């Protein structure tokens, strides 16, 4: 005990020195361990381990594409009229009517008739040395009304006659009593066959009868580019007619309406 009392300071200093020596001996291992930890941490940040992607869930996009393949049809017109309010118009007698119920939409085409080019063999003149043929010409679709009346042309084959409508090509059968006369039309070059019993007919256009009941107006035998039709406070021109419909065009803005023929609606 006396030894410890006399030398405890030396013993304590020795223990501290031994501890420091052990710490110094272990310090390289501690530094190496810390460096490894720092290296691992840097590697984890700079080169992270990425897990492989799993199969994507495409259910929602596929359902969306299926819906787009069959788009919803939304009708804002009649009878809904969400963004299409109904325009009204006052008639001449003070009644209110829907805009769709006045104007060209209420025009009725009661009749459509063809306008033909007709060639007829009217007679044969045998008093001359060469038989002569009286051929009637009627051009119902001519623009000039004076040219629509039937006219007659005296034709022969020696030499072949030519006029503003056709050129003689051939006389079949007996010259004094032909079974057929063949001519060539000047405007199209087609061949036309004429006999005593059967004239040649070609449709060159149409004319139409129209009725507008709201104003009790009727227009008969109207042709393309006839005088304007005045109704509903506006003027309209006929710009086309075929065997099934009449096309009207507004003089104000050029808007067109195709109106089907409806003979049963005649007044």
Largest sheet: 5 strands, antiparallel
Instruction: Give helix and strand order, one letter per element, not per position.
Output: HHEEEEEEEEEEEEEE
Shape: elongated
By secondary-structure content and strand pairing, the structural class works out as alpha+beta
- The number of distinct helices, counting runs of at least 4 residues, comes to 2
Helical amount: 10-25%
| Lateral strand order in the biggest sheet | 5-4-3-9-10
* Total E-strand runs: 14
Cα-to-Cα separation, first versus last residue = 147 Å
Uncertain ranges:
none
**Strand residues, percent:** 35-45%
Q: Give the overall pLDDT as a whole number.
A: 85
- CA-based gyration radius: 52 Å
Description:
The chain is α+β, with helices and mostly antiparallel strands and 267 residues long. Among the domains are: 107-111 and 206-265, no CATH class; 114-204. It is built from 2 helices and 14 strands, in the order ααββββββββββββββ. It has helices at residues 2-46, 59-69, and strands at 88-90, 96-98, 107-125, 132-139, 151-155, 166-174, 177-185, 191-194, 200-212, 217-222, 229-231, 234-241, 245-250, 256-260. The strands form 4 sheets. The chain has a 5-stranded antiparallel sheet with strand order 5-4-3-9-10, with no helix packed on it. Strands 11-12-13-14 form a 4-stranded antiparallel sheet, with no helix packed on it. Strands 6-7-8 form a 3-stranded antiparallel sheet, with no helix packed on it. Strand 6 and strand 7 form a beta hairpin. The protein is elongated, with a radius of gyration of 52 Å. The termini are far apart. 13% of the residues are buried.
